[in-house]
Amino acid sequence: MQSQAKPTDPQAETAAHDFVYRKLRSRIIWGEIAPGESLTLRGIGKEYSVSMTPAREAVRRLAAEGALSISASGRVSTPVLSNERIEELAALRALIEVELASRALPRAHMALIDRLQAINHNMTEIVQNRDAVGYIRANLEFHRALYLRAQAPAMLALIETVWLQMGPTMRALYTRLQRSEAPHYHRLIIAALKAGDEPGLRLAVRSDVTQGLKMLAG
Amino acid sequence: MQSQAKPTDPQAETAAHDFVYRKLRSRIIWGEIAPGESLTLRGIGKEYSVSMTPAREAVRRLAAEGALSISASGRVSTPVLSNERIEELAALRALIEVELASRALPRAHMALIDRLQAINHNMTEIVQNRDAVGYIRANLEFHRALYLRAQAPAMLALIETVWLQMGPTMRALYTRLQRSEAPHYHRLIIAALKAGDEPGLRLAVRSDVTQGLKMLAG
DNA sequence: CGTTGCTTTTTGTGATCACAAGCGTGCTAT
DNA sequence: ATAGCACGCTTGTGATCACAAAAAGCAACG
User: Treating both helix axes as pointing N-terminal to C-terminal, what angle do B83-104 and A83-104 enclose, rounded to 10 degrees?
Assistant: First the structure.
């Protein structure tokens, strides 16, 4: 029995390809998939109970965002980043995130600062549990919460594609590193926000973003 | 008679979906399609003699890059940008292109400067012919030639997606504007390159990129 | 004359299939 | 024992179809 097309909704709940896209995207951006790990369309389809068609569309979309790489023969895998590429992506993060933070600063209310502090507090616990995925997840949540205040959707979308590209590599980096404490630059960010200190905020964000890179080079 | 699959090559020449993607991408980035213009999968397929499948994949890829927007019901059209979004995209151009130019500077040979001058010279002719598409095309060629020297593929890829998003709107802007001369900031860029003047180069690029925006606001 | 209702057409979505290339495995020959 | 080759399985690609929803065209009514 082939029930053809979507049995119930068109894309009211969310289309199948979009559902698969979101699921995969989360796994990638949170570093749940190792760099260079390969995926198959049929495998993805089976995992989410859809046919190859929506799986293919989700994969194409992610590939367009740099979250997946497709070989010449069409094989799908998470990208393995060279050191040069990591440096570039970190530079992009520094460039764009500093701008976002700067734009968010005048709009930062107390509620935002409270939320950032709460997230940051959670991170100290996560770190003690040696939970790399949880760490990345909370870290992104921290940055996203801040940048949302910038009211700059295009910039936010762009920086998220950069995060996406770094996802698998970040996980490899963090598990190798085993941090012992929450990022202390986050506290500098919060302090600068409280003080309304723009230069300090820019520096703190830039430092936080490029800090991981130094460990890689060292 | 259904000849199923690709009759000759797998993706040796380039897969059908990739072919369609490239064609559409060119048309969009050069401003050959007006903002808000709508496309259909069957129409695209017919235009390039392929079925809906590769057309759909090309469209998804372009949508992921922001070159096309897809309505809640799945309808495909070129995006209509709000003024706020244009300002954001221009800010992103300024941010990233200044960085790219800066990285290209130490690598800029005489051959590059000659090429930039040649492109710029062509633009004066194109302007007199009132050829908006040709203008955008040459302008992008100018910038791309410069940024290629930066040896920063991730940054270049990112900025190209920004250009893509602005494509249709740029055309609307330039036809409305009817420039009378080639962009004079290009000459400042070339001069700064020759002199090895980094601050001057950064300022010239930033001015060139944000100049179009001012006309919009005025 | 405009508006509301229904019917027809258009359009995107997802499943399925045939096909070809990739890739690995195991066998054979030297 | 190792190198080369052939076979089979895996995997991506593209065409086609059935379906549902949205859009457009059309008619009848206020």
Answer: 140
